[in-house]
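so my prof wants the structure for this chain in the tokens format not the other one, which i didnt know existed until like an hour ago. anyway here's the sequence
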Amino acid sequence: MSSTVSTSRGILPPATAGVSGPFLHSESQFSESDETELLTVSWNQDYGCFAAGTSRGFRIYNCDPFKETFRRDLKSGGFGIVEMLFRCNILALVGGKANNQYPPNKVIIWDDHQSRCIGEFSFRSEVRAVKLRRDRVVIVLEHKIYIYNFMDLKLLHQIETLANPRGLCCLSHNLNTSVMACPGLRRGQVRIEHFGLNMTKLINAHDTQIACITLTMDGLLLATASTKGTLIRIFNTMDGTRLQEVRRGVDKADIYSIALSPNVQWLAVSSDRGTVHIFSLKVRVGEDPSSHSSATQSPALYYQNSSTSLDTLISPNTGANPGSSLSFMKGVLPKYFSSEWSFAQFHLPEHTQFIAAFGSQNNVIIVGMDGSNIAFFYPVSASEIPRYLHYTWTYVAEFREFESSIWFQG
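here's what i got, hopefully its the right format
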């Protein structure tokens, strides 16, 4: 597998700004009667915004308050991948299959402040995903992952993976930790790359193929689900230790997303069963390296202080997840009876893909991929979970809002 990279005078470090700052609204080139198909939705790195790739182009939305901040429509077709870099003017774009200008095997690094392409990657096969850090561009193909330096687009690493049609890959986003998680070369295996420490860790997470993965912002914790979709597991990425296991259900399900709250107290899981499950986590993270008083402390020392002992990652609180009334017989009965279940869940329209995330205030944010239901929000309280909550459900196509209620079971 080979790749071709071209640049336009190199790439300057992206200037961070509010989405409404560098992004200027563009006028639509289409009539209102033209139908717009939603192709993809993806969060930015802090889950404060999301990008929607459509058959016309792409749109950027702010989460709280919810509003469309920018759109760009193109006559040549839409984008199957739109990846933001926090809230700056740089985006990674991959054309949809119907795009006659940008094919699905090409990645465009787009500077919307200058309205021009500043970098381009071409491959022999279709691009499955693109992930961005302030210092890295990661491009995922079905059997290989390429890691480039953001400054000059030079290739730094190539990683072989098991067949990865979902484009599974995730990055840490703290400045002092550089961690990547992706499928390994064996079924159910996750490969962890600690680039700052020049260390690779292989975690045998499941018996069946990996369906979904996510990392905490510092990359110290990994959450995984398999194609079976019944169990979600939390691992220490430094030594591969399994820290917690929770059960979504008994029947097989296709896991669409796993989200960890900023304080790593909550876990949200969405699936094709039309439910989003909320779990309480027993793990906790160490001190944020970006806020450490010593600016000269190395990532290796931070890892050593926060991850070499399980005591620093396991909270003494056992959490609020319910278990079976027969869990006291876990040494005799099958493992199912000792499982931790979600303490709350809510129901969504079935057969629609929803991806969940947590906002800065531990609000749950859900985006629907059916083209009409785009996002709604509600708070998760650490002290009390009310059985009825209200949320705002916004229709992207018609820009209408209405209030509804949601039912918690737990």
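also thought this was worth mentioning. The two ends are 49 Å apart (CA to CA).
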